[in-house]
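Input (ABC-2 type transport system ATP-binding protein):
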Amino acid sequence: MVRVTTVDDVTVIVTESLSKRFPRVTALDRLSVDVGPGVTGLVGANGAGKSTLIKILLGLSPATEGRAEVLGLDVATKGAAIRERVGYMPEHDCLPPDVSATEFVVHMARMSGLPPTAARERTADTLRHVGLYEERYRPIGGYSTGMKQRVKLAQALVHDPQLVFLDEPTNGLDPVGRDEMLGLIRRIYTDFGISVLVTSHLLGELERTCDHVVVVDGGKLLRSSSTTDFTQTTTTLAIEVTDTDEHPDGTRAVRDALHARGVTVQDGSGLPGAGHILLLTAQGEETYDLVRDVIADLGLGLVRMEQRRHHISEVFTNDSDGEENNQQPKEAVGHGS
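Output:
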């Protein structure tokens, strides 16, 4: 089952063997996972079944098989009641261009059942939280992509939900905008205690933001673990050195010197800075001492020497079904570090 909980450990979402089939594709295939409280990431390449799952949980699309509950309510029969208590930020741009952020968010608050005065007060507070307070009276059509994403986030939060679903909230944002959005998402839980289920195909975002990550591919579960488990340190040591006049290729000089001492060294193909990074297995403190001595003897500068960490992307490349998952596009499973 999938279980997302609030800080007081009340079950928010339960699904059991959830499947969704269309005539030519299976969007979800008996998805079963257990997740704890906090910010939960739902990750997979485009078409993995993330948006389909959210639609089912909101009662907007019926499951083919299995069952699901949100806040103790059956999604098959209580969709409207669920939507009153859950916030939803859709992936695509669906905002009216001719109204202001204030007008739109107040309208959404009223649609969620808030009385007029409370809707206006909550709208002001929420737009301040997402960083749009100074721009709240401008027509949405004149907003940048980042500002529009913040409006969508605000309308998902304005009625003070117990849980929010955020579908690809960083789509279309530049690096600065992504960082700001990820910070806002984290604060939803840390500042307000609202549980979050956030989807993304950019794994590095979830590594930085989420407490727990659920990885799906082709509608099937690949893994569900805490982010800490996903990113545990390995025994692989990464080394990067500078070049000198005496050793214009410092990387090769270190590799040759370590080979001469019986140490197996690989290059860091596929890593940032590939061609300048060496990888070897750390056998203990003596490995660090050996590397330090070799670099010092060669008169090179040490840029970094650190243990590598696992990344969520390895779930795709290491999956036993292998071939299909190994063909995932790099941008869909890249971690950027």
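Confidence is low (pLDDT under 50) at residues 320-337.
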